[in-house]
Amino acid sequence: MTSFSELQRKVHVGKDKKNEFGGYSYRTAEGILAAIKAALPEGAYVTLTEDITEVAGQIFVKSTATIYVPDEAEYTATGYAMHPITKKGMDPSQITGAASSYARKYALAGLMALDDGSVDPDAAKEPYQEELPQVVLDAVSGVLDMDGLAKVWTGNKQWQTHPDFQKAKDKRKAELEREAA
Fold it and tell me: Residue ranges of the domains in the chain?
């Protein structure tokens, strides 16, 4: 059985749509919902509900996305979108539909913890790489011989796959080999 946290890790929705006028990429509520449905474990389901609410004199569409996972729990997130009274070129039902779609998109994105910043981790080409602490780099550059380098390398197993650690080790190794020659 897939847990909710596993479901969140499985669901990746890139910004596959392009607004040519505004020059930005975006994802849709429909795209997010399709990705969620495809990843749901057996017996789990998702619901969306909406309400109209007033906040500080403004009208908003409030959308609530809920995922029910059997033998686990239900998980909920809410998204809001301002509902203008009028919008040029749109009739009232189109205005409500646009606000509703926007609110659903943010409820679903929040539920799946999808980032909506300018840098989309779901679309990243390279995996996130934690910054190598300066103290580790200083330890590599401060060794006096190959034995010291080996000790720093084996003492920092968690950093051995980090490209900066590998480069620093290789650079110091080359320096020590030149000094020994």
Answer: 4-123, 134-180
Which of 53, 162, 166 shows the shortest CA–CA distance to 103?
Answer: 53
**SS3 for 86?**
coil
Q: What is the pLDDT of residues 103-162, one digit of tens each?
A: 999 999 999 998 755 555 555 556 666 677 888 888 889 999 999 999 989 988 888 888
**Closest by Cα among 39, 34, 31 to 2:** 39
d(CA 125, CA 74) in angstroms, rounded, equals: 32
Q: Which two tokens stand for residue 1?
A: 């059985």
Quote the CA–CA distance of 118 and 26 in Å, as a whole number.
Answer: 10
What is the Cα–Cα distance from 175 to 169, expressed in whole angstroms? 10
> Comparing C-alpha atoms, which of 116, 108, 129 is closest to residue 26?
116
> Which CATH number describes the domain made up of 4-123?
3.30.390
Token pair of 177 as six digits: 């080999």
First-to-last alpha carbon distance for the chain, in angstroms, is 60
CA distances from 163 to 70, 126, 130, 160 (A): 42, 12, 11, 8
